[in-house]
Amino acid sequence: MTDQGYRYENGRRYHAYEDVAYYMPNDESEHNIWLLTLEGALYRAPIPKSLVSVLDVGTGSGIWALDFADQHPGCRVLGIDLSPIKPNRAVPQNCTFRVHNAEEEWDFGDFRPFDLIHSRFLVMGMRDWRGYFQKCFDNLKPGGWVEVHEVQFPMKSANPSTPADAPFLRWGNVIYEGLAKGGIDSGAANAFPQYLKEVGFEDIVEEMIPWAVAPWPEDEKGRKIGQMEADNLHNGMEGMTFGVLTKNLGWTREEVDDFVAEIRKDMYDTKKKYSISV
Questions:
Q1: Is 248 helix (H, G, I), strand (E, B) or coil?
Q2: 190-240: per-residue pLDDT in tens?
Q3: DSSP code at position 28
Q4: What per-residue confidence (pLDDT) applies to 14?
Q5: Helix (H) or strand (E) holding 80
Q6: Whole-prediction pTM value?
Q7: Residue 199 burial (CB < 10 Å; 0-12/13-18/19+)?
Q8: Predicted pLDDT at 165
Q9: Helix (H), strand (E) counts: the chain
Q10: N or C: which end of the chain has fewer CB within 10 A?
Q11: Contact present, 197 and 204 (Cβ < 8 Å)
């Protein structure tokens, strides 16, 4: 089903822009996990208190941009995404949204230059990361920051006895393969430091954080993240999987349905200690 720029599958909202431009959900499901991961913060960058303009790329529901605008009322915040943004709360006067493909030419007028450019989970849609970082560099003011939060395929298991062909691990591998056939490197995060350096960035900081899938960690925070991420993947699994496997790998609807059912059951197995690197 489509509705003014969105596709809805299995109760989750996805982009309809250019049909298959992006496979990840663009709703608010990951936002609370990031807040928990970052101890309630919206960013890690040591940005100054006095900000003029901030860009949120892949803004989705707009929740990050809205939260940032509320916390920084003197800063102009621009959120862009492939779909029309429909916030579920009042939009502050200092927050603006536009439909724009980040891989196309950037023309943001007097919003630029930016103090901070933030993005999250573009990995299943971005084809040219070096080009993206070049656009960021060209549109930041001197001393500005770019902050990228990404997931890295394939999936992992902390239990060495987990079979390599276990459904959840296999899912990560076939998604990686399917995206690659569509021109997308879902393991591109490994090259981010190199790309950033090549286009001219300095003071590059890389932080790898494992998100558990299912509540298997010993610590309370890890268990909570694991439960939230497993539930999130369960709800979004069909939408993230169907387009990649049918369009790029030639799977049938029935094959995808059977595979998704296996994955949803398997990823809650706490003995397998699954995780995703972000």
A1: helix
A2: 999 999 999 999 999 999 999 999 999 999 999 999 999 999 999 999 988
A3: S
A4: 46
A5: strand 76-81
A6: 0.90
A7: middle
A8: 96
A9: 8, 10
A10: N
A11: yes
Using alpha carbons, list the distances in angstroms from residue 265 to 7, 230, 231.
Answer: 25, 10, 11
| Non-local CB neighbours of 3 within 8 Å, separated by 6+ positions | none
Residue 102 and residue 158: Cα distance in Å, rounded? 35
Tokens 């303009």, residue located:
53
Residue 111: both structure tokens together? 């919003």
Show the tokens assigned to 233.
């993947």
Running DSSP on this structure, what letter comes out for residue 246? Answer: I
Cα distance between residue 57 and residue 70, in whole Å: 18
Does pLDDT of 5 surpass 70? no
The mean predicted confidence, pLDDT, of the chain is 90
Task: Please give the Cα distance from 80 to 103 (Å, whole number).
Answer: 12
Report the distance separating Cα 168 and Cα 188, nearest Å: 20
Task: Say how far apart CA 165 and CA 201 lie, in whole Å.
Answer: 40
What is the sign of the dihedral through the CA atoms of 37, 8, 175 and 192?
Answer: negative
